[in-house]
Design brief:
Blueprint (H helix, E strand, L loop, with lengths): L13 H11 L1 H48 L2 E4 L6 H7 L5 H8 L1 H4 L11 E4 L25 H6 L6 H22 L18 E3 L16 E3 L6 E3 L4 E8 L5 E7 L4 E10 L6 E2 L4 E5 L10 E6 L7 E2 L1 H7 L5
Antiparallel strand pairs: 1-2, 3-4, 4-11, 5-10, 6-7, 6-9, 7-8, 8-10, 8-11, 11-12
Helix pairs in contact: 3-4
Length: 326
């Protein structure tokens, strides 16, 4: 029987102490802390891994997109065939800069006359015209997030046109240009002396240029730049001696002038005068072309002391003597 005035204190059992120790000890508390620390570290590492994946994917995509562009820009070699001329080759192969750039890139091969290219010549074709290149195919979608392109760049990028549509547009522009050229040509006023240049284009091959492509060993006239269908004018008043086919010269017109000299216009695509007809300076006598022994549209022009081949004199000096600026 317990003593009076004292209360017995019940002893805590080992199990209870163990639970308290487990409840307040470091082990139970530490476990959540360790878990929290690991989770926090994982959350920090995940964005870094995703960023690295995105950067790597973007780099690979840039390399894939750059590869076709580099391939397209690589120069190629073209072998000239019969009937070719620089403007035709440039148009058929979408050469950036047109026939002028093609001629500049191959001047050592072509020589001084861009109108005379021979079958078998090897021409280097530069990068294709970006305005006429086909639109690139969209890249396949990736699971990795893509960086958004700047809105300004997206708005500024022109939409690529279909090749057929671009060719149709280029053809229409060419027709419009030729129509404007034909309309403007007759309006050219003769010099005070009544003499004019045969066409408005510049000289592509000068008189007396040497070369094996000419039977005489040199150029007997001056070649003027003129696309097919350009208006050809009589340089001065005179009488048409002949108008028709003339072998290597193709369609030609020969005019006798009052001073006893003759002017010759060769490789014409069509004739507008006939033998025995009187013409005035600046009058249309035909249209330029590439008939006869010619590798491309241009006007071959001569001044002769007689109507026959081999009587040539300097045609540009002759025109300048008559007040024509060449």
């Amino acid at each position: 029987m317990p003593a009076k005035g004292k209360h017995r204190r019940q002893k805590s059992t080992l199990i209870t102490r163990g639970l308290v120790a487990a409840g307040t000890g470091g082990a139970v508390v530490a476990l959540p802390l360790i878990g929290a620390t690991g989770a926090h570290a994982a959350e920090q590492a995940a964005p870094a891994a995703v960023s690295g994946t995105v950067a790597a994917a973007a780099q690979v995509q840039a390399q894939v997109q750059a590869a076709p562009a580099a391939k397209a820009a690589a120069p190629t070699t073209y072998s000239v065939v019969a009937g070719d001329y620089l403007s035709k080759i440039a148009a058929d192969h979408d050469v950036a800069g047109g026939w002028k750039q093609l001629y500049a890139d191959n001047r050592q091969v072509v020589g001084e006359n861009p109108s005379l290219i021979l079958p078998g010549m090897k021409l280097t074709l530069g990068a294709k015209n970006p305005a006429r290149a086909a639109a690139p195919k969209p890249a396949a979608k990736s699971a990795a997030p893509k960086a958004a392109a700047p809105k300004a760049a997206v708005k500024a990028a022109p939409k690529a046109k279909a090749k057929a549509e671009v060719k149709a547009e280029a053809t229409e522009q060419t027709r419009a240009s030729r129509s404007a050229e034909r309309a403007a040509a007759p309006a050219a006023a003769p010099a005070a002396t009544g003499w004019v240049a045969p066409v408005s284009g510049g000289v592509s091959t000068p008189y007396r240029a040497s070369g094996s492509m000419w039977s005489s060993g040199y150029h007997t006239g001056a070649d003027f730049i003129a696309s097919s269908g350009t208006t050809v004018r009589a340089v001065g008043a005179g009488t048409v001696v002949s108008a028709g086919w003339s072998g290597a010269y193709g369609n030609e017109v020969v005019i006798k002038h009052a001073d006893g000299n003759y002017s010759q216009y060769a490789h014409l695509s069509s004739l507008a005068v006939s033998a025995g007809q009187s013409v005035s300076g600046g009058q249309q006598i035909g249209l330029s072309g590439s008939t006869g022994n010619s590798t491309g549209p241009h006007l071959h022009f001569e001044i002769r002391t007689s109507p026959s081949y081999g009587a040539d004199i300097d045609p540009l000096a002759y025109l300048r003597q008559h007040g024509v600026s060449i």
